[in-house]
Amino acid sequence: MNITESLLGWYAQNKRPLPWRETREPYKVWLSEVILQQTRVAQGTDYYHRFVLAFPDVQSLASASEQEVLKLWQGLGYYSRARNMHHSAKEIVEKHNGIFPSSAAGLKKLKGIGDYTAAAIASICFEEPTAVLDGNVARVISRLYAVDTAVDSNSGKSILTDFANSLLDVDQSGTFNQAMMELGALVCSPRTPACYTCPLAFGCEALKQNKTGDFPVKTPKKVATVRYMNYLVISFVQNGEELVLMRKRTGKDIWKNLYDFPCIETENSIETNDLLVLCEKQDAFFGLPYVVKQVSPEYIHQLSHRRLLAKFIKVELDGIPAISSSLVAVTKEKIADLPLPRLIDRYLANLI
Q: Backbone phi, then psi, for 337, in 5-degree steps?
């Protein structure tokens, strides 16, 4: 039995009963692939069910507001993926009459759909004979052939894709691709691969060389940029009701179109008294008297290439501020209705 036959035989016996495997609807396959790009299956499954319940088809996703989409995505991170998915849903409805392109080449013309996602949708939903290359597949192939080129380099991706296509069963490409991904997830894991139960162990060069821990080869990670975020949780009373100022993030920075609190970034950690002096210089309290009610401990929040060190200073204003268009005043209860970064959600859960 060759590698392809062994893989497909193993998959038939061991595949997990995941909800997106029960359908070949491109919308649902697409949704699952986007959610699972940086999310474990257990967590991703819950998000998948919530999305399908809220937006059962591409038309309903297209007609939703961005705020609704971002709120439902909250906690998954990488919010640009949600925005891109929303944008592409609109394009599919408006330019393609709600019908997904059936080829990887056509799918890649949609915003946010790259080589991997396009190949996954095209092979699973339309049986286009094209191999996928995600992290799981890259790990399997790199060990199988002891590929010593970095998997995250262009040349490495090209080599691995060629190997994957050489193994591809063109008559059942969708099943083959899912089998390869499943093997990487369940058997050929990053740190403790179950090599001696692997159906491909007989052909694995890394195992023969006793070097499974050396593959896949990756380029060195960039050192994360540290950002010091000093959040101002500013409240005031208007018409007998306590309101809190929130800021909608715009531009090309992190968390675009999500809401957080007004923030003063500093180059280094700063003492609270020094921060308050800086706030007054920048008119952060609108020239009104204020009382500091609480200073949080430091929160550490890791993004892909950024490490955020944040603290929250809870301030009550004596008076009603003249706020700019970039800020909104909401009740504490309404904050939960806004799409929030995970960092802000953590603070709210602990301290408000």
A: -80, -15
Return the sign of the alpha-carbon dihedral for residues 313, 318, 323, 329.
Answer: positive
| CATH H-level, domain 225-351: superfamily | Nucleoside Triphosphate Pyrophosphohydrolase (3.90.79.10)
pLDDT in tens, 68-108: 999 999 999 899 999 999 999 999 999 999 999 999 999 99
pTM of this structure:
0.87
Identify the sign of the CA torsion 124, 128, 132, 137.
Answer: positive
Q: Domain spans of the chain?
A: 3-214, 225-351
Catalytic residue among 5, 22, 25, 33: 33
C-alpha 142/C-alpha 33 separation (Å) is: 22
Q: Which CATH architecture has domain 3-214?
A: Orthogonal Bundle (1.10)
Encoded tokens for 47: 């998000």
Let me know if 316 is a catalytic residue: no
